[in-house]
From TrEMBL:
<keyword id="KW-0723">Serine/threonine-protein kinase</keyword>
<dbReference type="GO" id="GO:0005524">
    <property type="term" value="F:ATP binding"/>
</dbReference>
<keyword id="KW-0418">Kinase</keyword>
<protein>
    <submittedName>
        <fullName>ATP-binding protein</fullName>
    </submittedName>
</protein>
<dbReference type="InterPro" id="IPR050267">
    <property type="entry name" value="Anti-sigma-factor_SerPK"/>
</dbReference>
<dbReference type="Pfam" id="PF13581">
    <property type="entry name" value="HATPase_c_2"/>
</dbReference>
<feature type="domain" description="Histidine kinase/HSP90-like ATPase">
    <location>
        <begin position="23"/>
        <end position="127"/>
    </location>
</feature>
<dbReference type="InterPro" id="IPR003594">
    <property type="entry name" value="HATPase_dom"/>
</dbReference>
<keyword id="KW-0547">Nucleotide-binding</keyword>
<keyword id="KW-0067">ATP-binding</keyword>
<dbReference type="InterPro" id="IPR036890">
    <property type="entry name" value="HATPase_C_sf"/>
</dbReference>
<keyword id="KW-0808">Transferase</keyword>
């Protein structure tokens, strides 16, 4: 008989979709990075704030934030889940707009990012940071 080890569940935070969610997500990431010994959490805080803010403004239902290190290269990955069906897209440049630049900025600061649908509906928006 063989035994299998269940994968470890990544640190997870469930948030109500309100204006406190981005602050709580930033604190969650900062505390986790400190626990991991990652001193520079600036980009991580910006990324989680942008993704949670988009989820709060454009998604539906509770917001789930998961942060883990990719087991292949050790780089941090931020995932933000919500029940909304819309998919985030980088908007064309509009110098007159007062919002809509956050995703573009985030995309320039991370190694990679994307969106994947959830089987139960909704989506996960993820971003892989460039340094541990």
């Amino acid at each position: 008989m063989s035994a299998a080890v269940a994968p470890e569940v990544p640190p997870t935070l469930v948030l109500d979709p309100d204006d406190q969610a981005p602050r709580l997500a930033r604190t969650f990431l900062a505390d986790l990075f400190a626990e991991w010994g990652i001193k520079d959490d600036y980009v991580g805080r910006l990324v989680v704030c942008e993704l949670v803010t988009n989820s709060f403004r454009h998604g539906r239902g509770q917001i789930v934030v998961r942060i883990f290190r990719d087991e292949r290269d050790g780089l941090p990955v931020v995932e933000v889940w919500d029940a909304g069906e819309g998919r985030p897209e980088i908007q064309p440049e509009n110098y007159a707009a007062t919002s809509g630049r956050g995703l573009l900025l985030m995309a320039e600061l991370v190694r990679d990012w994307g969106v994947r649908p959830l089987n139960e509906g909704g989506k996960v928006v993820w971003a892989k940071l460039d340094h541990p």
